[in-house]
Amino acid sequence: MQLVFATNNLNKLKEVQALIPKHIHLLSLKDIGCFEDVPETQSTIEGNAIQKTEYIKANYGYDCFADDTGLEVEVLNGEPGVFSARYAGEHRDSNDNMNLLLKNLKDKPNRNAQFKTVIALHLNDKLKTFTGLCKGEITKTKQGDQGFGYDPIFKAEGYDQTFAEISLEEKNSIGHRGKAVRLLVDFLSSLR
Description:
Structural class: alpha/beta
Mean pLDDT: 93
Distance between the termini: 9 Å
Number of domains: 1
Radius of gyration: 16 Å
CATH architecture: Alpha-Beta Complex
CATH class: Alpha Beta
Oligomer: single chain
Number of helices: 5
């Protein structure tokens, strides 16, 4: 089976490739000659994931899946949510995003948050979605140099270290994207 993973994020690609069974040949956007920005203009995480898969299917003809992920902070009414990548502006800088979030949480005792990943799969002209959640909290300072995005300030429930301090394998076993990808893999495996 051949599937396109509709992402330009090499970190996401690496995380997902580690979880996908060997019988599924994963293609990147670069592999199919897609170098334009795939639209993400929906108001929800699920909407963005679906929009990306429909764009690839309509413009390139490949069966594909796409994910969208957001960090939802309880005391900020779910912010940054669907705007996680552009929280501090269109330039999409992870440090600026983390700094703004830490500033917005300054003096707030409730630091509960969750990462949410939705994967949309467009396969054989059918659409299916898979959701993975990871609950935790936002730390007061950045810790660790692994991972990407908000990883240095997110600590999963039951952990003393941030996502940026644990291994990729450990992050995949407890994290939002890992959970969503395992649901995707289970579904794809059921089709064999």
